[in-house]
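quick one before i forget lol
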Amino acid sequence: MDNFEFAQSVPEATSLGIKGIKHAKDLWLEMLRRSKKSIDVGQFYITSLPNEAMEPVLKIIKEKALSGIRVRVLVDKNMAELDYFKEYFDSIKGIELRLIDLMKVTGSIMHAKYMIIDQADVFIGSQNFDWRSLTQVHEIGFRIQNEKFASLLLKVFETDWRIAKTKKLPAFRKGPRKRSPELSCVYKGEKIMIRPAFSPAVITPLEFSTELDEVLGLINNAEKSIMVSVMEYSMTSHYSDLVLTKIDTALREASLRGISVKLLFTDWASKEPSISYIKSLSLMPNIDVKLSSIPQLKKRFIPFARVSHCKFMVVDSDLLWIGTTNWEPDYFLASRNMSIVIKGKNTNKKLRELFTNTWDQGFSRSVDASKKYIPPRISG
């Protein structure tokens, strides 16, 4: 019986949906309705509007808490002004809320997005707890029903839960970092192997791989092809003086080895310095680069929406990385993020299908190194 599945969010009035993948809202409601003991949520922020898609999700969390189920919610302090829980959850008995201020601890943000239900049922994905992430943004995530995997994720949740209280770096034991434990799951009848990875290293227990190491390992060991879909890409940070060149170097070296590399970013990355790095990559042999630009709805402008927010990489015919991390320095070196590496042909095939569907859409266009790009209107 399958205990792994993907979950997608499809922007209204687009054909970005893939057959055979549930919508995130439906999957979240299914998971939450089945909860009997505990709900642990880690999110960048929480926001909603009346009659929008997040309302039934927040409603059932509230109902579960009132029924006696323990609910813990962890969100980024610096996004607190957006957090709808102040209005919706704040006085609900059974819900414990904590704000984690990673800006004071690591110099960045809590950017992971996940749920752990009954210490056995896990969701991780690019979807924020935001109504737009369910109906107006292209997203991908996954669900794993596995107690061992949930126990691994809980170690990171408990680490961050303590950081939110102490506002200090955790005191980990000394020693070398290990590779994350590998576990087996089943997807479409196929046994797949998964292992989690986390960012940043400084707040990740030593028994887990870092995302940077896993991403570099996949790129450096690719034999035929690499497909990457992430919202933003840069070697320098927009938020600090952090610099990360290893991934860019690995992609260029892969192209020189003859590996077919397809990179799909969004028009949100058409600002400097991102666009200069992207243009440079497009000039490399064996690298094709596109920017996607999902049109706004004719009937209204929706801020911070109408974008592909997916974060995944498909390697060869049986490897996959999927998580919450944009490919900029902060996300790997200072922000809390999480992902998994999967070895399996069926999972690879399904996200290859997702990538190709987006790549072939008319609003995804090849990067022209001679063109002057103007960033799209995002807010206001």
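fyi The chain has eleven helices and 20 strands.
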